[in-house]
Amino acid sequence: MELSQAIDLASAFVLPGLVSDEASLQAERMKNEDAIKTLMDAWKSAPAGKEPFGFDLVLSLVDRNRGVCDRIGAEKLRDTSPSALARKLPDSDLVHAVAAMQHRPDAEVAAQAGPALEDLNIAYVDAPVSGMVMGIDIETTDRDPARGYVVNIGLEFMDLAAKAKPHDAFAGYCGIPAMYAEKGVPLEFIHHITWDDVKDAKPLRANAPMQKAILAAMCAYPFMAHNAAFEDSWFMLNIAGYAEARKAGRITVIDSRDICRRVDPEVRTLPRESRPATLENWARRRGTLLAGESEVHLGLDDVELMLRTVQAEFAERNMF
Predict the structure, then answer these.
(1) How far apart are CA 284 and CA 161, in angstroms?
(2) Is the sign of the CA dihedral 112, 303, 147, 62 positive or negative?
(3) pLDDT greater than 90 at residue 297
(4) pLDDT grade, residue 293 (50/70/90)?
(5) pLDDT tens digits, one per residue of 126-144
(6) What is the pLDDT at residue 44?
């Protein structure tokens, strides 16, 4: 889709509910998601301050697309590839994460890591880590942030130190449209969040104070998440000002899954099908999750497990 077409589509006034049959709704969804990708690519690639439109245009089209997806039905989209979910963080973010934890220049870490980051594992252990990070985890109704909703957020802070404890925890539910009172919360079989949990909560996109508080914390401290590309993709399309702050370099993202894959030597010896870099399996290897226990898949519980596991890994590798 041409950029001018995407801007026209996003700017157009659309009466909700005008289209009702599934084939037309699916066509509208695909057109919306094509436009969202075109807009995001153009906005990200433009020099700061010279974007052809404000990012609010993207957010408004995403909000509209969620309404279309609600009418199609989450269950019918479950096997459809996500359109707005990044598979991994850019290499520059992975380098910057190491540099931020070690308080050294990005260029120094990049030179040590090599052009394809083949030696980033060496950079991880080359200097001690320190400082405060904010761990964060979200639960959602879909894999795709252009289709679903955030239903739970958990976050807390921890110093990167051997004996530090997580502190100042926050956990909150976020609402979803009333139609799910009867249909049930999508992906409940994973996160076990029910309608009773979210029925009195505001949707994240309608909760400006929550958005502002989370954004302020992210701008104050690096945030860490397991498979952080997931959270990054969702925050981009749910938190006003996140895209702008991210582009301006005011947000540092640390992916604990990348830490696991590069620092834990057992990842390279275990069978790929055992998914050794999942938080649950990594935590079992580090003793932060007992053999008979499972990852809870609820924001704050998973954040605390992640922070304790990262701490255990760093201690194992003498990285403090």
Answers:
(1) 21
(2) negative
(3) no
(4) confident
(5) 999 999 999 999 999 999 9
(6) 97
Q: What is the pLDDT of residues 189-210, one digit of tens each?
A: 999 999 999 999 999 999 999 9
Strand partners, 153: 138, 172
Classify residue 63 as exposed, middle or buried by CB count within 10 Å of its CB (0-12, 13-18, 19+): middle
The token pair at 217 is: 């914390």
Distance CA 277, CA 259 (A): 9
> Which residue type does 168 have?
D
Other CB atoms within a 10 A radius of the CB of residue 27 amount to 13
Categorise residue 117: left if φ over 0, alpha if ψ from -120 to 50, beta otherwise.
left
Task: Please work out, in degrees rounded to the nearest 5, the angle formed at the alpha carbon of residue 91 by the alpha carbons of 90 and 92.
Answer: 90
Residue 204 has what pLDDT? 98
Pairing status of strand 253-255 against strand 167-173: unpaired
Position 267 confidence tier, pLDDT thresholds 50, 70, 90: very high
- CB-based contacts of 46: which residues, under 8 Å, 6+ apart? 52
Q: 120, 209 in Cβ contact below 8 A?
A: no
* Residues in Cβ contact with 77 at an 8 Å cutoff, skipping those fewer than 6 apart: 69, 142, 144, 147
pLDDT the model gives residue 290: 81
Q: Which residue has the tokens 């089209």?
A: 61
Which amino acid, one-letter code, is at 309? T
Average pLDDT over residues 164-189: 96
The stretch 270-283 carries a mean pLDDT of: 92
Q: How far is CA 204 from CA 37, 210, 216, 263, in A?
A: 22, 7, 15, 35
Q: Which residues contact 253 (CB under 8 A, 6 or more apart)?
A: 89, 93, 97, 222, 223, 225, 228, 231, 232
